[in-house]
Amino acid sequence: MTITRAACIGGGVIGAGWVARLALNGIDVAVFDPDPQAERKVGAVLAGARRAYQRMAGQYLPKEGGIRYAASIADAVDGATLIQESVSERLELKHAVLAEIDAHAAADAIVGSSTSGIKPSDMQTAMRRPERLVVAHPFNPVYLLPLVEIVGGEKTAGEHVERARALYASIGMKPVVVRKEIEAFVADRLLEAIWRESLWLIKDGICTTEELDDIVRYGFGLRYAQMGVFETYRIAGGEAGMRHFMAQFGPCLTWPWTRLMDVPEFNDELVDLIADQSDAQSGQWSIRDLERIRDDNLVAVMEALSRQNKGKGWGAGALHKDYLARLAETARPDKDAGDGNGSET
Fold it and tell me: What is the value of pTM for the model shown?
């Protein structure tokens, strides 16, 4: 199953990432965002994505899809197979936008919401055809990170969950269908736990933002990047595996090691503390510089993982390897190695 034409409603960081992933996979995209700066902002993200894709896929890239800035939601969704909503996380705004999408989209179009935590059932109340709405929660940068959490609501048809899974997989993503509808789904619940504990550690003076980031990126972050949580801890159990690990470390769950049940007061003092330390840590780079560094690092990690497991790839690397193979199979016969769709080389 493929996407013949797509619409992106909302052109912020996530929406622009969707535009880039879709267009760089050869799909025509119509964009609607009332922000007068939307075209410039999307263009900046697209430029970075082109650079990353040129390094990642090179001569196998398809002809870039066209990008059109629509005057209305109705105009944008006309003829779209996939419609991706990425507006701000306010339920009343989601309702208004989804109702308008629903009124003008083709009957067989899949509507995906990029929401980070709102349950699809709570959004479906604004739609006459709620059965085709799914949460399709991606991760920044959308054009490189393959995971997309698929969540159906009470009125979502099972066939449309499967259609959504196939559509997102067709653009190189790893769809994971969340089995039960829940606020914040799976990934953001994990991220919220580490974010909340991190705020306490900084607030209490245990470490700085840079020291905490070093602990993650020089330690367990490397393990998580290729084995996740449970496979990592299975190895930690030694030859006896997960049962031994659970027996050894299970009692720690009752120890007062974390402050996850508490929330630090969100005030100007906390904001200044975190922001000032972050400026000291990373202020020498612009955000665009950091995006380029991040993208280069992500491509390098996926390339390295693609060579593991006797060349079959491991984790995100296996998906990366399969994605490039599909691109190579469908590459235009007249495409020469120097064609990068106007991107940097």
Answer: 0.91
Amino acid, single-letter form, for residue 325: A
Report yes or no: 256 and 248 within 8 Å, Cβ to Cβ.
Answer: no
Task: Reduce the secondary structure of the chain to three states and give it as a string.
Answer: CCCCEEEEECCCHHHHHHHHHHHHCCCEEEEECCCCCHHHHHHHHHHHHHHHHHHHHHHHCCCCCCEEECCCHHHHHCCCCEEEECCCCCHHHHHHHHHHHHHHCCCCCEEEECCCCCCHHHHHCCCCCHHHEEEEECCCCCCCCCEEEEEECCCCCHHHHHHHHHHHHCCCCEEEECCCCCCCCCHHHHHHHHHHHHHHHHHCCCCCHHHHHHHHHHHHHHHHHHHCCHHHHHHHCHHHCHHHHHHHHHHHHHCCCCCCCCCCCCCHHHHHHHHHHHHHHHCCCCHHHHHHHHHHHHHHHHHHHHCCCCCCCCCHHHHHHHHHHHHHHHCCCCCCCCCCCCCCC
pLDDT per residue over 222-276, tens digit each? 999 999 999 999 999 999 999 988 888 888 777 777 777 788 898 999 999 999 9
Strands 82-85 and 5-9, sheet pairing: parallel
* Token output for 9: 């409603």
pLDDT digits (tens, 9 = 90+) for 298-312: 999 999 999 999 999
Q: Which amino acid is at 343?
A: S
**CA 322, chain centre distance (Å):** 19
Distance of CA 85 to the CA centre of its chain: 14
pLDDT in tens, 74-129: 999 999 999 999 999 999 999 999 999 999 999 999 999 999 999 999 999 999 99
